[in-house]
Design a protein that fits this description.
single chain; about 100 residues; alpha+beta; about 10% strand; 4 helices
Amino acid sequence: MCGELVVSGQSQKLQRPKLVVGMVVDQMRWDYLYRYYDRYSANGFKRLLSEGFSCENTMIPYAQTVTAAGHTCIYTGSVPAIHGIMGNEWYDKSLSRR
């Protein structure tokens, strides 16, 4: 699939990536990416910062502080009431078990 970008009346086709990888580092403050920048290797966080995308100091208001709900909020831009992921464990009614 291709997207279309229009700049100054000119249209260009953009190739969509085949794979997008997201990474969340739990318990790491966003400002540490810059505070400790000199300690990172060229192919580690420095590469991610220069070639990737970083959402910094972002707040999505939801009450659950469980991993599944939080990560789903990040990747959908939505809250649990909309995306439906409320916790790390689910109860399967048809199997009568977690």
